[in-house]
Amino acid sequence: MKDLARLPSLNGLRAFEVAARHLNFRLAAEELGVTQGAVAQQVRNLEAQLGLQLFHRQSRSLFLTEAGRGYVTNIRKAFDLIAEATRVLRPEPAHLTISVAPTFAAKWLIPRLPDFTDAHPDIDLRIVASDRISNFQTDAVDLAVRLGRPPFGPGLVAEHLFDQVVIAVASPAALQRLGPASAPCDLLGLALLHDAHDLWPQALDLIFPDGAPAPAKNIRFNQTSLAIEAAMAGQGIALTPQFYVSQDLAAGKLVACFDLELRTGADFYVVAPRKVRNVPHVTAVRDWLRVQARRI
């Protein structure tokens, strides 16, 4: 333990390693979050402790001396040993990436994340919100939740999560502003809020089999979540999978309209490669999704 007293400053060693990597005190200072002068001073102090010159300093360049080249190789090995010892002592959470549609993330997954974090503190869940179909290899995605019909592709396993039952919703304030509605056509006094799925033509055919009257107005969004937010703001009637708004309906923020239940034949599935990385954690997330889906 007496040798510990002879060790140079760890701050000086760190400044030396970073400066040796960049061969530039300014870039080293940016990486370390200190001033250029501080890095230069730490390196000078280290050289004074060692009694050796580690760098050749020229007006616009920096070069390692022969002693510096040999020293930095061993210093890096020492830092790697410290990092590995720390990793073993305090392992990082497992990283698992799940790809979901933006509305699924906003309206269903994110409100339930505290439950997931409490149940699985060892899993660092990374959420990629995109309507684009993920490539499990090139995008480093472990799981995906997608709306569609299986099969989703070769080498993929799909597990049913939700039926898609589409309903029409509006805010109580919008319905009150409209006044008493004695027939479904009266509700068309409100704007129809469309999203990228464009299900209103199918919905209107179901509600008005003999032909639908023209709505007062159409407003279009590229995400279902935006149409839902517009409906809650009293701007019209939105179509949405029922499970997206179950809590809003229970809280009285939205009201179901038209007595509509539209089924398109496409449902929500958890999709994963047949051969997954990190099987225990993928299984844990898939099981958690299944349990949460049953609670709706």
UniProtKB/TrEMBL annotation:
List, alphabetically, the InterPro entries matched: LysR-type_TF_proteobact-type (IPR058163), LysR_HTH_N (IPR000847), LysR_subst-bd (IPR005119), WH-like_DNA-bd_sf (IPR036388), WH_DNA-bd_sf (IPR036390)
One biological process term in Gene Ontology: DNA-templated transcription
| Superkingdom of source | Bacteria
Positions of the HTH lysR-type domain: 8-65
Pfam families given for it?
A: HTH_1 (PF00126), LysR_substrate (PF03466)
Example GO molecular function term?
sequence-specific DNA binding
Keywords on record: DNA-binding, Transcription, Transcription regulation
Regarding protein family, the annotation reads:
Belongs to the LysR transcriptional regulatory family.
- The protein here is known as Transcriptional regulator GcvA
